[in-house]
Amino acid sequence: MLDSTRTQQPADRTPADRPLLLRRISLGMVAGLLVQYGLGMIVNLYVSVPARDQGAGVLTATGRALASGPAALAVHAALGLLLILGAVNLVIRAALLRQRLVAWLSAAGLLAIVGAAASGAAFVSSGADGSSLAMALLTGVALLCYAVSLFALGS
């Protein structure tokens, strides 16, 4: 026999709490992106990408950065992957809660983060300044998307 009580909302979770969860996730994304932005500056200024990583493909460069890169580069790459997961989580939750504006902004933020990650992997692979610039600009776009989401969700 099926237990239908499992589909009911817990007493401590009301529909009014749902936008609060979206606000918290958006705020976490803003904080994570600011940390990522700072780490990116540290990596760009003070970390030398190993020569064996240059010329590798995007996925290879990401894997090497995580597995055997300098510590700051590994943390930067790992946080980037966590931010992608957080962005996907926010898009899905906003869509399920029918928060259209937040869902669109979150999707734009997700695309910006994925673009920044691809630019970062291209930077590790080629060392091109344009890839570093693209990474920084796309991070700024993602920050803007999540900040506007916070504003749209109100307090």
Folded structure, characterized:
The longest helix is centred in the first third of the chain and has 30 residues, at 17-46. This protein has one domain (19-44, 54-153). 77% of the residues lie in helices and 0% in strands. The N and C termini lie far apart (43 Å). It is an all-alpha fold and 155 residues long.
Keywords:
0% strand, 155 residues
The shape, in one word, is elongated
Percent range for β-strand residues: under 5%
Q: Can you write the helix and strand succession as a string? A: HHHHH
The helix-and-strand class reads mainly alpha
Number of domains: 1
Summed over residues and divided by their number, the pLDDT gives a mean of 86
Q: Give a short account of the largest sheet.
A: none
Helical run tally: 5
Low-confidence runs: none
Strand segment tally: 0
Terminal CA distance reads 43 Å
Radius of gyration: 18 Å
Helicity range: over 70%
Mind sketching the topology for me?
Blueprint: H1 17-46, H2 58-68, H3 71-96, H4 100-126, H5 129-153
What can be said about this structure in brief?
The protein is an all-alpha fold and about 160 residues long. Helices cover about 75% and strands about 0% of the residues.
